[in-house]
Amino acid sequence: MALRYLVALLVSLTILAPGPLSAQEEVASGYYRYRDREASTGYFEEYEVKPRGPSPFIQAPGITGRGMRYRTDEKNVWNRKFLADSHRGIPFYPNRTCESCHAGEVRNMHGTRVGITCRQCHSSEPIASINHYYSRMNPIRRHAYVCAKCHEGASGSLATYVVHSPNPENTGTSEVFPELYYGYMALRVLTLGTLAVFIPHTFLWGLREFIAMRRRRREEPHE
């Protein structure tokens, strides 16, 4: 009798219960979630990167020149983070090197350990600004267009790695990268505090052992 009720309950649940949702299927399988949502195929459509395309920004009225500006009264300040050509208007740019303006960015793990050059990530001219919509360095496609060239299947989380991290000793780092600044300072205080305690301790310990050894030698009988 109990078996009949159990079978009837299972049949009722099968008929009346809603079917599995796509979200449940996605969460249930980490492999398919990674493959469908995060993994890069390494292939890109032509429209994704469009160098030298028309500027999508509205120009400030009454101000000559191209580029997006912060305010109408800032005639000499350009917001270069949104330009299709981030080096537009820089004097003598064809004769310059990357290091002449970006000396701090040259020192990074990718260049030091693997020897990757600037052009391998930032592409050839014109180099679009990092926040330009069609830029290969834009966070919405950086993992697929840049990182995946060396890191197969790179996801969006991999592209959040800060390649050109600032100097942790600079006070300005606390504003642009507070995690690095305060983490570095905490480790520095920990290291200096440990050395300040254990170096004198080790010296005094060694001095005590040396004095004890001299005393033992004096107390030993001479033949």
Low-confidence stretches: 21-27, 53-61, 63-77
Mean pLDDT across the residues is: 73
Number of domains: 2
CA(first)-CA(last) distance: 104 Å
Number of strands: 0
Strand % is: under 5%
Report the sheet with the most strands, covering strand number, pairing sense and barrel closure: none
N-to-C SSE string, H for helix and E for strand: HHHHHHHHHH
Work out the radius of gyration: 31 Å
Work out the helicity level.
40-55%
Q: Which structural class do you get from the secondary structure elements?
A: mainly alpha
What's the helix count? Answer: 10
Shape: flat
Walk me through the structure.
The protein is mostly helical and 223 residues long. The chain folds into 2 domains: 128 residues, no CATH class; 58 residues, no CATH class. It is built from 10 helices and no strands. The protein is flat, with a radius of gyration of 31 Å. It starts with a helix and ends with a helix. About 14% of the residues have low confidence.
Summarize the structure.
Helices cover 45% and strands 0% of the residues. By secondary structure, the protein is mainly alpha-helical.
Protein traits:
single chain, 223 residues, mainly alpha, 2 domains, 10 helices
Topology:
Layout lengths: L1 H15 L5 H7 L1 H9 L59 H4 L1 H4 L2 H6 L3 H5 L19 H4 L27 H4 L1 H42 L4
